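FAQ: What does the model actually see?

It sees only this:
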Amino acid sequence: MRLVIQRVSEASVSINEELKSAIDCGLLILVGIEPNDDSKDIEWLVNKTCNLRIFDDENGVMNKSVLDVKGGLLVISQFTLHARTKKGNRPSYVNAAGPDIAIPLYDEFVTELEKASGVKVGTGEFGANMQVQLVNDGPVTIIIDSKRKE
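And it is asked to produce this:
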């Protein structure tokens, strides 16, 4: 499971020109799921995400988590995070899980993130054509892959 986490001052997702979810200060989390991902990946990533210290403290040092700043969370499914680009110019998505595997894991990730954070997590819609808007604060962008825990 791969996450691209962006610290944002605001973010939103719309589908068919209709606002689905929006947050102010917090994290926009893009989620890519592989066929061999499971609940252990989710548990590790939820813990990492909630405790990632990428918000400034009173001294301007990134020393606070999204929990510390009581930030919002917006989670968007994005199979393209597992694109293979080694050959040719057209990406291959063979490493991305199909909907039968990905949807339950995506839903579980959102549920576990809500439990761990204590806040309602905003989402997009799995498989929909979404328009995501954000103001990346910093900019701060972190990539975390549950298969590369070093």
